[in-house]
UniProtKB/TrEMBL annotation:
Residues 46-113 form the Protein YjdM C-terminal domain. This is Protein YjdM. Residues 4-32 form the Protein YjdM N-terminal domain. SUPFAM superfamilies: Prokaryotic SH3-related domain, Zinc beta-ribbon. The lineage of its organism: Bacteria, Bacillati, Bacillota, Bacilli, Bacillales. It comes from the Bacteria. Belongs to the YjdM family.
């Protein structure tokens, strides 16, 4: 029995090696072992200020008054943000806030509702 991983596309256990490629005979999907390792490591886990894991579509609340860059307004504590999207970068939450518009937030300044 081989120690090759199942196909990431159809989950078939009948994968085989062809040089540096792994191939699934059932769905003809080809991939490399390195790309599979990179894919599992690239799944970044984003946590809020309390350590709860955030997901796309969650609703969060701002835990600190935040100055809005390029404006004289302030995002007040307790502001509820619905339907967040997680993105890569320093500001890892992309959202739309009523009265402010599109904005990026850092996960350390929000808590999950």
């Amino acid at each position: 029995m081989s120690n090759l991983p199942n196909c990431p596309k159809c989950n078939s256990e009948y994968t085989y090696e062809d040089g540096s490629l792994l191939i699934c005979p059932e769905c003809a999907h080809e991939w490399t072992l390195e790309s599979e390792l990179d894919h599992t490591e690239s799944a970044k886990i984003v946590k809020d200020a309390n350590g709860n894991v955030l997901n796309d579509g969650d609703t969060v609340t701002v835990i600190k008054d935040l100055k809005v860059k390029g404006s004289s307004s302030v995002l007040k504590i307790g502001t509820k943000v619905k339907n967040i999207r997680l993105v890569d970068g320093d500001h890892d939450i992309d959202c739309k806030i009523d009265g402010f518009g599109a904005m990026k937030l850092k996960s350390e300044f929000v808590k999950k509702v």
